[in-house]
Design a protein that fits this description.
- This protein is mainly alpha-helical.
- The chain has a domain of about 210 residues.
- A two-stranded antiparallel ribbon has the order 1-2.
- Helix 2 packs parallel to helix 4.
- It is globular.
- The N and C termini lie far apart (about 65 Å).
Length: about 300
């Protein structure tokens, strides 16, 4: 039972990193990235191939995963500069599916449908519970680092300018904000975090395969960010942990319902998740932790609206 609990919270930590990635691009920048699972897969495969076949150390593999996902994000961004945001969402979804198909068919590069196994975990698996606890701590530190970084960005002038682009990019451009550059920077940072989550996922489980990166992951992360509070880093973290715990609880609940097949149980589980989300959104449309409006000046600072 303890091993299972550690596993659940480790996966929740990885989802929290993904939630921070989506919060940065969608919550702060208004960029709808429907291909989050694809950048997640790029990070997983890049680090797995670099450490297993290239023999490089685990930390360098994780950095390479972040760089690969970030570069892929920049390529997608600059290839869609002349398109509206809704087209970017469609292209990212298509990009994610193309990546999964390529990974499924390029046997020499990715192992095909068999995937890549035996990926290094950085510590010996002989310790059992020690290995699980080590990875829980490592993933939790990574989630905390991403949360602090995104929160710092949100409070910075760069973050305020990015939210201005999210609210109305035409007005932001008239005000002199570099809209294209801000969106490209936000998307590159966001995909780098998705790559980090993918690397953590691959090394923790020691195995990656195309079927592990279905579009359902993207949907789950959108649910987590919406549930926690779109536009607030703490809400993204809270939403990720609540979602993963709830997903596991529904797994046990549907298994105890008699007279249904496993397939019907899986469908019932998804229906239950959707219903709970609808109720929460009805009661808390802004999420569990709504975004707070920031003041342009501190309370004890200068106020241009009042004479000195």
């Amino acid at each position: 039972m303890l091993n299972y609990a550690i596993f659940v919270f480790t996966i929740a930590g990885i989802y929290a990193v993904l939630a921070q990635s989506l919060m940065l691009s969608w919550g702060m920048g208004g960029i709808v990235n429907l291909g989050l699972a694809g950048f997640f897969a790029i990070g997983a495969y890049a680090s797995a191939m670099a450490t297993k076949w290239g023999g490089i150390p685990l930390p360098l593999g994780i950095l390479l995963a972040m760089l690969a996902a970030s570069l892929a994000g920049l390529v997608v961004t600059f290839s869609t500069l002349r398109l509206r945001d809704d087209y970017l969402a469609i292209i990212t979804l298509g990009f994610s599916e193309v990546l999964r198909i390529v990974a499924n068919n390029e046997i020499a590069l990715t192992g095909g449908s068999d995937g890549i196994s035996g990926i290094t975990g950085g510590v010996s698996r002989a310790g059992g519970i020690s290995y699980a606890l080590a990875w829980l701590g490592f993933v939790s530190l990574a989630a905390l680092a991403c949360f602090l970084a995104v929160r710092r960005l949100a409070a910075s002038p760069w973050g305020r300018a990015l939210r201005a682009v999210r609210d109305d990019q035409v007005v932001a451009a008239v005000a002199g904000k570099p809209v294209t550059r801000l969106k490209a920077q936000a998307f590159a940072l966001s995909t780098a975090m998705a790559g980090l989550a993918g690397a953590l996922f691959g090394h923790f489980g020691s195995y990656v395969a195309p079927d592990m990166f279905q579009p359902l992951i993207t949907i789950y992360i959108f649910l987590a960010v919406t549930l926690g509070g779109n536009g607030r880093p703490a809400g993204a973290v809270l939403g990720a942990y609540v979602l993963v715990v709830f997903l596991e609880l529904t797994r046990f609940t549907t298994e105890r319902v008699g007279g249904i097949s496993p397939l019907q149980g899986a469908a019932l589980r998804e229906i239950t998740i959707a219903l709970v989300l609808l109720v929460l959104m009805r009661l808390r449309p802004q999420g569990l932790l709504p975004e707070r409006n920031q003041k342009a000046f501190p309370a004890d600072g200068p106020n241009p609206g009042k004479p000195p």
